[in-house]
Design goal:
The structure holds two protein chains of two kinds. By secondary structure, chain A is an alpha/beta fold. Chain A is built from eleven helices and 14 strands. Chain A has helices at about 45-50, 75-80, 95-105, 110-125, 140-150, 170-185, 195-205, 220-230, 240-250, 275-285, 300-310; strands spanning about 5-15, 20-30, 35, 60-65, 65-70, 80-85, 155-160, 190-195, 205-210, 215-220, 230-240, 255-260, 265-270, 285-295. In chain A, strands 6-7-8-3-9-10 form a six-stranded mixed beta sheet, sandwiched between helices. A four-stranded antiparallel beta sheet of chain A has the order 2-1-4-5, covered by helices on one side. Chain A has a four-stranded antiparallel beta sheet with strand order 12-13-11-14, with helices on one face. In chain A, α8 (about 220-230) packs across α11. The two termini of chain B are about 25 Å apart. Chain B has eleven helices and no strands. The chains are: A alpha/beta, B mainly alpha. The interface of A and B includes residues 49, 78, 84 and 149 of A.
Chain lengths: ~300, ~240
Amino acid sequence: MVEYAIQSDGLSRSFGAVHAVEDVSMQIPVGTIFGFLGPNGSGKTTTIRLLLGLLEPTRGSATVLGFDSRSQASDIRQRTGALLEHPGLYERLNAQENLEFYARVWNLSPAERDTRVKELLTHMGLWDRRGDQVGNWSRGMKQKLAVARAMLHRPSLIFLDEPTAGLDPVASAALREDLSSLVTREGVTVFLTTHNLPEAESICNLVGVIRQGRLLTIDSPARIRSHGGEQKVEFVGQGFTPAVLEALRLRPEVAEIEASNGTLTLALREDRPVAPLVRLLVEGGCDIEEVRKGAASLEQAFLALMERDA
Amino acid sequence: MIADVRVMIWKEFRELRQGGGRGKYAPIILVLIYGVFFPLQAGRSWVDSYQMVGFGLGISVFMVLSVVADSIAGERERHTLETLLASRLSDRSILIGKIGAVVLYGWGLTIASLIVGLVAVNLSSGEGHLLLYPAGRAITTVVLTFLLCVLATGIGVLVSLRSSTVRQAQQVLTIGWIALIFLAVFGVQLLSPSTRLRLEHRITTAQLTTVVVVAALVLILLDVIVLALNAARFQRSRLILD
């Protein structure tokens, strides 16, 4: 039993002069839901292709489920499921036929095939529509079916490349919920790329941030939040005079000040105590009714990382 | 590998059952046109002459070209190829499965058209007698149409792999096929009268078996070359980069 589902060491891939992936080293433990975050064109999809052995690295190496991506790619593909950039469904076929085809590809026995297809379609709420041509379905339904296809052969690891891209918030939430419950039930490792940072925050227990092919950080969402982003503090009250605001601006921990309609919002550079600021406001003559302290969201931390690296 | 090829053929036929992008009833319409309309026009000569051999060769290519672009270029155009490549299937199984399905489809419809044609001619011109294709001619047709289907499919695969869309691949293949027919017809006209006479003499005096065997050998050689090119071109790393 391997400890890490994915291990890469200096993994790099260039296309001519373009370095799509550069020196990516990471270790993703088995059973993790890993979120791979990065802007468009940052190298997320290329990394997945390298890990699946669909592309050969220019430099470096990767092992997936203990198999080398260069020399044992077919062993990797045998044990993984993938939902890539596009759902990859046969739109002229119906949902059941789409799953049946891949069930045959994965050598499921006829009895197992029927049971598993029914189980997944039922779980995704698609069983009643199993006979419909997939081409007539909404994008949300197609994505659900594609997730079901990726899980069909009970892989140890699944790659999901932006599974909720292009979905409305309701469909995204539904897919996320289905995905989470399925992953929990089947105990698989997930490698998920996404632009949707709240999504990564809600379902991932490990997050990597990539930009221009380079891995900027890899850590738990909580630690990335605490290191990367600004902490927000909101004061509700009255008497936020220019003199008080000026005094706040001189404080080293204060990065940004915004005052409007009896609300003062401060962005703090680090995770510092708020009490001295409250004291400063009270001593400056402000009437404070409420103080709200919020940690930086993953989105803020991500943007801070991007800014720092730019 | 054979099991994987069968799985691919299963999928391809499921898609072809939906008409391969040309409507659900396209195969039936094609068989009715080629198997009823043309034989009825020809009448009894359909079974008495070599007309049906030439016809079979012609439509076998047409049948194959009508679906090969959809099978190869279509898979990429509809973004299903990458998912397929991310599965456990080998490049070879995918390629052979696709070629196998197209050949079986094209060849099968050709043979079906010729059988329907025989029935149609019997009903219209049989005059109480059972008309049959002569055995030699029937075997020649079955063998040569099969080899030609393989060749047309192989060429179709090569063209489709270089085309960005199904439409582009279909256009190139159709134009290429028409150009080939024109070249054959007008090429003979361009020969000097003496050369043409010599050629005609050689064909008419040669034993039919010899002509068929030579044609079959040439087709086998071309099939092998084209299939080898297909195998060299149909590789994951190249397809992903395309």
